[in-house]
Structure formats: structure tokens, C-alpha cells
Specification:
The chain is of the alpha/beta class. It is about 45% helix and about 15% strand. It folds into two domains: about 260 residues, Dihydropteroate synthase-like (TIM Barrel); about 120 residues, Sulfite Reductase Hemoprotein, domain 1 (2-Layer Sandwich). Helix 1 runs parallel beside helix 9 and helix 4 packs across helix 6. The longest helix has 17 residues. About 45% of the residues are buried. Bound molecules: iron/sulfur cluster.
Amino acid sequence: MELTSALLSARRPTRRINVGDVPIGDGAPISVQSMTTTKTADVDGTLAQIYALAAAGADIVRCTCNEEPAAEGLAHIVPRSPVPIVADIHFHHEMALAALEAGVQGLRLNPGNLRKEAEIKQVAAEARDRGVPIRIGVNAGSLHPDLYKKYGGATPEALVESAKNELAYFEEVGFTDVKISVKASSVALMIAAYRLASETFDHPLHLGVTEAGPPPGGLVKGTAGIGTLLAEGIGDTIRYSLTADPVEEARAGRQLLESLGLRERKGLDLIACPSCGRAQVDVIAVAKEAQEALEKLNLPIQVAVMGCVVNGPGEAREADLGIAAGKQKGHLFIRGKIIRVVPEAEMVQSLVDEAERLVADGVEARLAAADSGAEAEAEADRRALLDTTGHDPNRTAEKIEIIRRHSDN
Ligand code: SF4
């Protein structure tokens, strides 16, 4: 699949760091992160969640390291994890040192609550010696009180200055293996802060709208903030912060990157028409059924479910595979070309069967295997449907005429 990211603003150049085997910055694929919700001391429970997150699209997973049993848990988790592990540190620099000892591939420090210069430098020096990168994770909700006072609140300038101060401590001990985040729960504040951070630093940026809340609101906020910045070329790694199963975060992150053409499609992309007066089936129900059946196959294809054969195959001609409803029939198409006509009850099953064959055999082979009469049968259905519903099934022309009559009076 060709990536469509060339249509977006060019990505801002940043330095390269590596979190374990995942490269970040300097043109590396934008990575998806999420965070476990288990107690890190619960090794098996945490590993089960990490595996689920990795399967849903997470490239890196963060675990809290808030107490000694958590650090001990990390020592068991890191060697068995399928993805690099970042330890999340607040307040206690000893926990950062313990996490490094446990073998984590990254640290996240919050400059708002880990404030002693000597301790910060000690952690940075240890990370430097071990070759482990650190994220300077500034958060509007836990901004350093001095900066809050200086700027009269958590402004973009205050968030960026917090990161700058921390970076200065790091640089004093010769440590530059850093990525930066300036998160806020306000989407507008977060966008402004990251724009400023992008002008200020050449370190990779980790994007997120913090405390975004449960879906769908949390998804909307995360997408508004992260998506806007990515479209401007800002951001090297992302995390949705949802009050939900973190698998939802990983899935959303992956889908956002795929939808912007910034990562290759790994799984299903189901598109469907919104339905209208011309629809010949319950599009919502068929799309839901198709999504459930196709998701299980985990195939990297775009599949369309369209409500009618009049516009469906044409409007969805970019889709790898699709089905459009006719009169009690389904018109199965590949890249807009009808290959088979099936009974309405078999629409979803025929999509599933064809999806597997398409991925196994390729587009050309499946087009060559099309039923010979399929195009003609679809055309006859299309004409029949046009005869029944006309060219204006939503009675738009009639409505406009009524509106005009009202305005003339
Ligand atoms: Fe769906 Fe057909 Fe209506 Fe388009 S014209 S929205 S494909 S039912």
C-alpha cells in the first residue's frame, strides 16, 4: 500500500533515539504507545496486558514504577515482553534507578514532581551510562509550582520552559538521549504547547491529550489534538489517554496513523456508506456484521459495505473489496469491478470468503476469476433500481422547489 502521508505537511526533522529496538525521530515510523493499568508487581497480569496491547498495535508500553515491588516486577516483565518497556516515574528518583536496574528500555520522568536537581542528574547520569533514553514528560496538571506562578497558569510557554529546565540538567551530565512531551487535557493548550516545543527543540516529541476521559469523548479529544499536530508534521510517537481498557488506546493510535497514511495498514479498514433513501439493505447492521466477521481474520485490506448498486461500487472503487446491495442481492466487487452477484443473505459470508482469497491470490488473479455474467447482472439491477427510486431518491429536487416557493411568498 502506498502511504498517503506525502499529502500532509512534511514531518519536522528531529533527532533519532531508540527505545529498545524501536527507533523514534529522524523519519522513523511514528510509534504507538500505551500504558498498563495492572499493578506492575503482578507480573503475569501485566504481561498479559502487554501482549494484548502489542497485538492491538502498541510499539512501546509504559508501566508504572511507583514502589519497590513494581520495580521487582519489571525485572521479570522486561525480558518476557514482546515490546520495549518504559517505566513511569513520579516523585521518587530511587524508583527510576530501580527501574534502570530492572532493565527497562526507557524512563519517563515528570519534572513537575521530581524536582531536586541532584536527583535528576543522578538518574540522567545512570541512564547515560546504560544507554537508556528518558522522556521528559511535562504535564499541565502537575506543572512545577514556580513556573505556574511565573506564567500565571499552565501556559504553552510554561510547559515548554519546564522541559527546557529539565533538559539543561540532563545536558550538564552529558545526557541528550531524550524525547519530550508537553501534555494537557485541554486540546487547544496541548496543540499550542507542542507547536512551541517543536520550534524550541529538535528532540523527538511524544504527543498526547492527557486525561482525555472515556470514549467516545476521549477518542475525539485525542484525535483532535494528536491528529492536528501529526497533519502539521509534528510528533514522533503518540499515546491516546483513555479511561478505558488500554487496548482501546493502542487500537486508536494505530488506526489514527493508518488513517493519515503515516503507517502501513496492519489490519482491516472497513468503510461503509452512510446510507440514504436508495439503500437496499440495513447498511448499519450489515456493516456491523461484516466488521465483526472480518476483524477476526486480521487481514490488511480495505473493505467497503455500500447500501446500493447505483453508487456503491463507483464510490468505493478505491477499496480492495466491497459489497453493494441490489434487489435482495449483493454485488461483490474488487476495486470497483463487479466479480459476483450473491443472495442478500450471503453478503457477509461472501465478503469473508473473498477477503481470504484476495489476500492469498492477489487482485489480478481474483479479477480474472470473476463470474462472466456478473457485470451484466449488476448493470441490470442498477437500471431496475434507478427505475424504482429514480435519480433523486431523497426527493431533493422536490424539497428545494417547496423551499423556494416558501421564500417567494
Ligand atoms: Fe449508500 Fe447508495 Fe445511498 Fe450512496 S446512494 S449513500 S451507496 S445507499
